[in-house]
Design a protein that fits this description.
The complex is a heterodimer of chains A (148) and B (498).
Chain A: E1 23-27, H1 31-43, E2 47-51, H2 54-63, E3 68-72, H3 80-88, E4 98-102, H4 107-116, E5 120-123, H5 128-144
Parallel strand pairs in A: 1-2, 1-3, 3-4, 4-5
Helix pairs in contact in A: 1-5, 2-3
Chain B: H1 2-7, H2 9-75, H3 82-105, H4 110-136, H5 138-146, H6 149-227, H7 243-304, H8 309-341, E1 349-352, H9 353-370, E2 374-379, E3 384-387, H10 389-405, E4 412-420, E5 423-430, H11 437-440, H12 464-474, E6 478-484, E7 488-496
Parallel strand pairs in B: 2-4
Antiparallel strand pairs in B: 1-3, 4-5, 5-7, 6-7
Helix pairs in contact in B: 2-3, 2-4, 2-6, 4-5, 4-6, 6-7, 7-8, 8-12, 9-10, 10-12
The chains are: A alpha/beta (148), B alpha+beta (498).
Chain lengths: 148, 498
């Protein structure tokens, strides 16, 4: 979680395609999951700002616009869907790619996520390597098609 | 009782039917009367016929008197008196027969008496005298006969007979006219009654349509809607306080019950769905950490070697903690599954409840510390009981961790355990958020989570209290709750010992 820690090269499939200069917001109420996601992002050179709930996440993003946001769906206060909706209706955060983390096995949860304006979703539990791929792909897609 | 009875629909319908029945009966009686009048008229007509016949016979007999006399006078032979003798012997009989017939016809006997007197006069005053005279001097008798005295008397009699015939005919005609008039009146009344009957039937049909068929039609329409799933539909106009109104009200009440049952069923479905969502979340969150950290550790072990020793140790700790969390959750779910199947088995061994309580306090200390909650305890002991030590420990742990979970920093949580005679009491109290009164009763329901516990920041899937109560009750004890919202809660277990 230390933003100054050196990016360490690791064996990854697609980590060369994205510059290691992004700032990623991570919001999850479970500290272990939050740290896992942050650790994996930081190892690929991202700077991470972490929040334990939706309100804190929005506050952090209003202070510093991130390159991407990783939001847990089930969070106290504002849930992941609501944070996504608010980002989409805010001029500064509308174009920030959002990756939802969902513990639900139901299709409806995925549909709800896309309806709220998410770019992608990752089902818990997930492989950290695959997760980092998804984040990078979402960022790249937004870069190539900014109007999405 | 009289009010509703008077308004009762079936009573009203029965009343109308009784009215219709009486009307039909009256009409029937009238028709019978008309028929009788006509039959009587016919009888009178035939009686008149008979009377006329009798009168004619009497007349002929009277004439036979003359015929006999004339035969005697013409021939001088007394044998020619045969018709006279025959007629005289039957005169009385024929007279009384005619009298009877006239009486039956309703005619007075004056005319007949007059005729009989005439006959008597003719018979004794003329015919018999002539016969006597003829036996002495037939020539004188013939001269008297030629004088027309006898003819005058018979003419008078003939005239009287004509008068009688006319009276009989007139009487019969009058009777017939009266009978016909009666029959006509009866027919007119019957026709009027028939129209009235028809009118009443139409009124009855209209009334039945309005007060029975139309409401039944409306009921059928509403039933159709409810059957189609529109459970909020009701019969808007329940109507009069009669049977139909009662049926409508009962129907609406039934629909209310049905709707309530459906709401309850949906609520329980919602709780179930929420429960599965929570279970999924609670299972997948520790699994995420286990899978994720294990992948980081195995990448490291397989060659990247980027983790520091401290990081490796920390990651292994995370995996360990989350595995235990998962195990606890799985155990709770299994416990509830066993409970539902009725397969809950308890051990039965002697142990010291005070010792178990002290261990629970020790186990709760770290989470109380991290929540900045003061943990107090008053445990008297030893308390020797018999039962499932681990399950009872789990129950006390659950109560303590609940109390700590719902008590903000700076608050206090306490455990008091003591025994009185054959009952041990375990009390866990806190100065936490408390539970609203209306939720207290539902608190021990499976999947139910109090409003204060419903935010996802509060871990748990609503099984803790279900499990705790099941354990206490399986030991023959009881779990009760006192709580004031915003002030705190006290859970009390009464457990039989010894």
């Amino acid at each position: 979680m230390d933003p100054t820690s050196d990016p360490k090269p690791i064996a990854g499939a697609s980590n060369e395609r994205v510059g290691h200069d992004g700032l990623v917001l991570v919001a999850d109420d479970d500290p272990d999951v939050r740290e896992l996601v942050a650790f994996r992002l930081e190892r690929d050179g991202f700077e991470v700002m972490a929040a334990a709930d939706g309100e804190a996440a929005l506050e952090l993003m209003q202070r510093r616009r991130p390159t991407a946001a990783v939001l847990d769906v089930m969070m106290p206060g504002l849930d992941g869907y609501e944070v996504t909706r608010r980002m989409r209706s805010s001029p500064e955060l509308a174009e920030v790619p959002v990756i939802l983390l969902t513990a639900s096995v139901q299709e409806a949860a995925v549909t709800r996520g896309f309806e709220a304006g998410a770019d992608d979703y990752v089902k818990k539990p997930f492989s950290p390597a695959e997760f980092i791929d998804r984040v990078k792909r979402a960022i790249e897609q937004r870069r190539s098609e900014p109007s999405l | 009782m009289l009010g509703p009875l008077r308004r009762s629909l079936s009573a009203r319908i029965l009343g109308v039917l009784a009215l219709l029945g009486s009307l039909v009966l009256v009409l029937g009686l009238l028709l019978v009367a008309a028929i009788n009048a006509q039959r009587e008229a016919a009888a009178k007509a035939s009686a008149a016929q008979a009377a006329l016949l009798s009168a004619a016979e009497l007349e002929r007999a009277t004439l036979d008197l003359e015929t006999g006399l004339r035969g005697l006078l013409v021939s001088g032979d007394p044998d020619f008196l045969e018709p006279f003798r025959d007629a005289r012997s039957t005169l009385g009989e024929q007279g009384s027969e005619l009298s009877g017939k006239l009486e039956r016809l309703g005619l007075g006997g004056e005319r007949l008496s007059e005729i009989e007197a005439g006959i008597d006069r003719y018979l004794s005053g003329y015919v018999e005298r002539q016969i006597k005279l003829a036996s002495r001097d037939i020539a004188v008798a013939r001269r008297i006969a030629a004088s027309g005295e006898g003819k005058r008397q018979t003419d008078d009699l003939r005239e009287s007979f004509d008068g009688l015939d006319a009276e009989i005919t007139a009487q019969a005609g009058a009777e017939l006219d009266q009978a016909e008039a009666q029959a006509d009146a009866a027919k007119r009344i019957a026709a009027l009654g028939g129209v009235l009957l028809l009118g009443l039937l139409v009124l009855l049909a209209v009334a039945l349509r309005r007060s029975v068929l139309a409401p039944v039609g409306r009921l059928a329409a509403v039933t159709e809607l409810i059957g189609g799933g529109d459970l909020g539909t009701r019969i808007s106009d329940e109507g009069a306080p009669d049977e139909i109104g009662q049926m409508n009200r009962s129907f609406n009440r039934m629909a209310d019950e049905l709707e309530q049952a459906l709401v309850t069923a949906r609520e329980s479905d919602r709780l179930r769905e929420e429960f599965f969502g929570l279970v999924s979340h609670e299972l997948r969150t520790p699994l995420t950490s286990i899978v994720g950290y294990v992948e980081l550790l195995s990448e490291d072990a397989e060659g990247s070697q980027v983790l520091s020793v401290a990081e490796r140790r920390r990651f292994i700790g995370v995996v360990d903690r989350n595995s235990r969390r998962l195990l606890r959750l799985v155990a709770d779910l299994l416990f509830v599954a066993q409970l539902e199947d009725g397969r809950l088995r308890l051990e039965s061994r002697r142990f010291d409840l005070a010792l178990v309580a002290r261990e629970s306090i020790e186990a709760a200390a770290p989470s109380a510390r991290s929540g900045e909650v003061t943990l107090a305890s008053a445990i008297e002991g030893p308390i020797h009981c018999k039962g499932d030590r681990d399950r009872l420990a789990q129950a006390i742990d659950n109560l303590l961790s609940n109390a700590i979970k719902f008590t903000a920093g700076g608050g206090e949580v306490g455990l008091q355990v003591r025994s009185q005679g054959k009952v041990a009491s375990i009390e866990v109290w806190d100065t936490g958020v408390g539970i609203p009164g209306e939720e207290q009763a539902r608190l021990f329901e499976r999947f139910f989570r109090a409003s204060s516990a419903r935010s996802p920041e509060t871990p748990g899937i609503g099984l803790g209290l279900v499990i705790t109560r099941a354990i206490i009750e399986a030991h023959g004890g009881a779990l009760s709750l006192e709580s004031v919202q915003g002030r705190g809660s006290t859970f009390r277990c009464e457990l039989p010992i010894g």
